[in-house]
Records
---
Amino acid sequence: MPNPIDAAARATPPTVARRIRGLSDRAIAWLFVAPTIFLLLAINIFPLIWTVRLSFTNYRANRPNEEVEWVGLRNYIRILTDDGIWANMQTTAHFLFWTLFFQVILGFALAWLINRKFKGNDLLTTLIVLPMMLSPAVVGNFWTFLYQPQIGLVNYTVELLTGTPANSFSMLGPGGYAPWSIIIVDTWMWTPFVMLICLAGLRSIPDYIYEAAEVDRASKWRQFWTITVPMVLPFLMLAVLFRGIENFKMFDMVVLLTGGGPGNETLLASIDLKREAFEKWRTGYSSAYAIILFVTVFGLASIYVKALNKVKER
Amino acid sequence: MKTRLLTATAVAALCTAGAASAQTNELTLCWAAWDPANALVELSKDFETQSGIKMNFEFVPWPNFADRMLNELNSGGQLCDLLIGDSQWIGGGAENGHYVKLNDFFAANSISMADFMPAAVYAYSTWPKGSENYYALPAMGDANGWFYRKDWFARDDIKAAFKEATGRDLAEPKTQKELLETAQFFQGREIDGKTVYGASIFTERGSEGITMGATGALYAWGFKYENTPGKYDMEGAVNSPAAVEALEFYKEFYKTATPPGYDNAYMEQSLDAFKSGQVAMAMNWFAFFPGLYADPNTGGDKIDFFVNPPQNQPASTLGGQGISVVSYTDNMDGALEYIKWFANPDVQKKWWSMGGYSVHNAVLNDPGFKDSAPFAGDFLEAMSAVQDFWQEPAYASLLLAMQERLHNYVVADQGTAQEALDGLIADWTEVFQDEGKL
């Protein structure tokens, strides 16, 4: 039987073979990896370093002719001592916590349901995953109509169930409902994503483990807590990581639903950052703001990934 | 082979040259996507015929207009040769080199700013304010005005109920307080078996809505940005007792006389509320009035218009724009030719007749102007008492601060009017300190 390496060498055109003959394996590896590394440096690392540099200046991108002043840590100090920004961070944390909470509970419950074999299972799965296939812009616009006090289905349903007049409250207006309205929309849209990941986890559990548990006369409840939950947990944690990072950056849907209002009730850090960077054009200041957000997400994600690895090792 | 290569290269070069030549014979005009923009497309066909220059248009919906266009300018983009930009952009446009200074061109082509309404020239063309440095030609006069259901106001049963409720005749409000009283009268009233509401006003949070709406009351009460123009001395002006009273009035208006859920409403929502027969009155820009009058359901003899009512003084919030030549254009001659054509009195007359709000004296001083449209007289009256927001290069920071303070107080029920205006001074002071102006 011919050696495949020899065969590959024979198949290589002689000119190419001659050209790379003088290169070591390491050099050839670098040759192939270099374009990717160059792209990564150009579009990821360089902008990051440049942003860090800008964060120590008063640079404004809309005034290219103005002298750029080195301001040291001033931008960082202003941001970290700004009550408004801390309030936006709290709004973001509130949004993040409750969306993850509901999506994990509902996503897992739906996956548990879908994992059972029953008639119409496939159709139901398709229907459930529909919301996450929609564009956030579309979702934002049609939920605005659903929440409309006079013609919206939500207020109408509340009136039907509780007798509270539909016109008497606004889900996106004052009264404290607006943050919850956004949490509802995000949960509606992204629970299917968590469900799919949980479903993958549930389907990866071999049947023989449950069969062994049955032989040991373990109850369903005990099987759930000692087999299902631990084995799905790494998947669930992965889903939380993805959704957590995504929701930290949530922008489009909130802008469409409330524009950050009423007042600042739904002003997430990402919306505030966009206004600082591309409406006020405080590039240096917003660079510092972006770095703080990046470090926060990166730090939290790193801790989380370590925890995830520990769970996987168990 | 070489011959073929040379031929191909020559053909490619010729094609490129042709494309470049075609490109210089085109102009792109950028503006917001709304009724007057459609009229301008029609009007510009005359320019195309006359000059041989093909006109392209880039119209962006209002909510994204500022973002899109300011990004374009700030990045030195060549999308727009001509830009009909908001009045507040003039400071930034001039100081950051986005707009071409037009003084020499005006002088060389006998275009006189004295031929245009002084308030419009001041607001749309000059920087620094009050100087004779022109960065735009007034293109579209506009102010925030009001319109109402004339057919409802004329009904005997409604008139009688109004008289009984208020002790006065139902008519176009003459003061801000009458405006509120009239709106409150209609709030929740049954008309033809349908619940209607007082008025739709601007409360939008994201861009400029609530500021444009609330300043209609603030200016009427006598609100000033500074005690001394150009000194940025805001204490006692921005938060004067009259300003506090005006802001409390606007909040009361929002709470007691607007349709449910109008907590983030701007131009479109105001038009929808009126056209769907939900409200008796609505505020909006004069630019929409021709379209409203032509509406088959709520226009014609069912609608009438009035200028923003005075309280302590007559005042209207300024809208409208000037047309500027973008300094990054690759067709400077063509862009200037368009400006010259647009400044022509005959073109200005046609512009008005097509639905554009010309502020050229040849149009406004025409004896038949007031009768040329049911809102023409109101437009003249409004433009004689317009006030605009800051036009500083940092106007966006100033505007966002006001949006936040007003929405927090008026819609989100946080704090008092006094606290909102005091806070606004603090925000604006910080902006001007950053700008090195304080």
---
Amino acid sequence: MADTPVEYIKHHLQNLTYGKLDAGYERFDGTVMNESAWTFARTAQEASDMGFMAVHVDTLGWSIAMGVLFLGLFRYVAKRVTTGVPGGLQNLVEVTVEFIENLVRDGFHARNPLIAPLALTIFVWILLMNMLKFIPVDYIPTLASALGLEYFKIVPTTDPNATFGISIGVFLLIIFYSLKVKGITGFAKELSMQPFNHWALIPVNLVLEVLVLIVKPISLALRLFGNMYAGEVVFILIALLPLWAQWTLNLPWAIFHILVIPLQAFIFTMLTIVYLAAAHQDH
Amino acid sequence: MNINLTLIGQSIAFAIFVWFCVKYVWPPITAAMEARQKKIADGLSAADRASLDLELAQEKAAQQMQQAKEEAAVLIDQANKRAAQIVEASKDDARKEGEKLIEQARAEIQQERVQARDALRSEVALLAIAGAEKILETSVDAKAHSEMLDKLAAQL
């Protein structure tokens, strides 16, 4: 564990990284790698030196756990679903499904059976991942260090890899449906003949439209990541306060996050629907 | 905050979750919700229909009641008339019967009177003859005087 506040904060913001260190790399304790090998990073420096060939085990593990929890719960209900009077759990699931169904009905006018379940997955999954924030910041890292793991960051949405992973998926769907609905020429026309419908301005249009297209996944991912990351940093800062003062700030901040967490999940879902609706729109 | 393979792993997990949701989660739940919606709509329309039916049935029942009342009134009327007729007829019969009886009685009385008179007449004739015999002190030959006696009897 860390000693100074800065180290404490840095420690709490570091993912548990499992990656490849090249041969000849000098590790944190001065030993030199004989050959390149996959291993857990023991310091932040090691984690960043691993480059792209590394995996945030905590992010992946927790996000998959939340996804499995979501699908397990909903599948459990779907198997026992009754058309009669629904029980408590089925009610909860149906309210969520209906909420998403209404969002999609209002925002998405083309016919595509993929969009609603996609929105449901995004909403509930992100909601569950965000909700991991309610677990006090020291619980899981302390437990992990007792198990010999140097770092452990449990909220996947405070890791840009997680948010970009989802938004890139959405981005690929936007491209796919743009091409499918409008065809290559239609999509190219949309990128080059807007907003200025004149052949001389095609390059300007192209720059603008491609920028607009690329900004979509980036804004999706960064909005979610930024909100969650900032919130997490504040939680960590509050955790640095003396024990008697912590609850005065921690409690309001946690209550505030009861609003922020579903809001961010909702915004991500809503924007996904809007972007995909735009992709389906043929001019 | 390093971008690394986690990104790809997350995308793959996302794709798998979406696929699972599309295939195994969304359809049964929405199908059940739609089925329930239909059930409720059917129930409501059935209730509407039932109340309409009830109204119609009540109307019909009232009509039938009215008709029954009218029929009953007609029947009672007929019965009354019939009863009056019967009473009238029996009165008539009784009067006729009575008259007949009186007539018979009168005839009998008449007959008896005639018989009594005849009997009396012959009695008187005998008495007259007896009286005459006494007066004449002779026997009257009944045969010889029967003509005269009959004349006498007829005059009585």
